[in-house]
Amino acid sequence: MNSTPSNSPSPRRFRVVPPQENRPSTPPPTTQESTPPPDQKPKENTQPKNKNFPTHWLIIGTILVGVGAVSQIRTNPSLAVDGLVEFNPDAYREVTMEISGKITELFVKHESPIEAGMPIAQIESEALEQETQDLQLRALDHQVNLENARSQIIFAQERLRQTQDNLEQVRSRVNQLQQEYNSLNSSSPPPEIQGYKIQIQNLQAQLESQRKDIEVHEELAEEGVVSRRNVQKLRDEASMIQARMGEPQAAIGSITRRIRTELEAKQDELTRLQSAYNTANQEYIEAQRLAQSRVPVQQQIEEQIQTKRQKQAEHSLLKAPISGLVIAPNWYQIQGKVLRSGDPVLALADREQLIVKMQVKQEDIHWVQPGAKVSLSPNEFGAEILEVTVDEKWEIYTKDEQLNRSTVPVIARITDPQRRLNPNSQVFATIHSGQSVPLYKVAKGEICSKFKVRKYMPNFCR
């Protein structure tokens, strides 16, 4: 059968039509098909059909062209992230103990304002007081030792002076005795020796004269002029003169021995005193050295005591290093606590200077640059939206174990004089990228982010 059902495609037939200028196009006649009754067969369409260009290809092409045109529209993408409001680290200072001690009184409360230099707390440092007392005891001990050393200087100086005086006296006596001993046989002997020598000379002269008389009388006695008795008498007198000469000679010998003995004794004494003088002089020098060595130690201890007292006076009051707001939620527990040096007491912060820390996904971080605008929406109904700018973008990725993704911290500084944001509060942040990019790049980024295409098509997501 050559007939073709109405629902099956009919063969294409072409007809040559001459071109006509400025002839309005006549739409092809439309064939209205009626639905045959159920008991009748559809009639065969004997008229040829005109086939034009397929409309579905036109629609597809139109859609592709539209998508391509729309994808080239440039837009500024934005990212919606959660943010945490914190104090600005540049306007945040932790106040620590400058010395170990007990906080006896606290002058501030939580969230109370304070100016730089105002007292925060009264500190009583038992350790510092004990150290000061120990230094004072050491200073007293060293002062006693120093006074003893200075007393030793005085005693050694007095012994040295006495030894020197005795030494000079003995040395003078030794010189005198040496001169006397040397002058015993000189032409100018001591007066006592000189008297004995004169006596000896006189007796020698008498003895010589007596001997001459004896010689004369012996000659006369031989001649018989005088008797032998007279000669013997003269001889007896000469013997008596000779005997009398022994007394001054013995006296001179006694004086010589006495001078020599005393000279030897004084020389020994001089040697002993010279040694004693050297010892006394050494003791004096040693006492001076000891006293001089203890003076710097005493001065050092006194300086340490002064430093401790000054430190105790300066640090007995803990003062605010900066102006700001007191951050001490447990301020009522601080008073009475004993803390060590360096332990934190409380914190001071500028309530108006805050930051918001936002965690941006690693695949979206390229949309964020310093200077990008950020809209902050507090988690409060009807709260005003704040506009800030990105101040810092870290280069370190952090791993979010809960969401199993890598994020990059982004910081924006906030100046909030109206105090619309509270530290440690969550906010909704919208980061507006300053880059103007085609829409298809935004769509590609969303596809890579939502459907994990990066894992399977890394080149597509670059």
UniProtKB/TrEMBL annotation:
Subcellular location, in the record's words? Cell envelope
Q: Where is the composition biased (Low complexity)?
A: 1-19
Q: Predominant location of this chain?
A: other
| Protein name stated in the entry | Efflux RND transporter periplasmic adaptor subunit
Q: Where is the composition biased (Pro residues)?
A: 25-39
Q: Which UniProt keywords apply?
A: Coiled coil
Q: Which residues form a coiled coil?
A: 146-220, 256-290
- Does Coiled coil show up as a keyword for this record? yes
List the InterPro entries: UPF0194_transport (IPR050465)
Sequence segments annotated as region (Disordered): 1-52
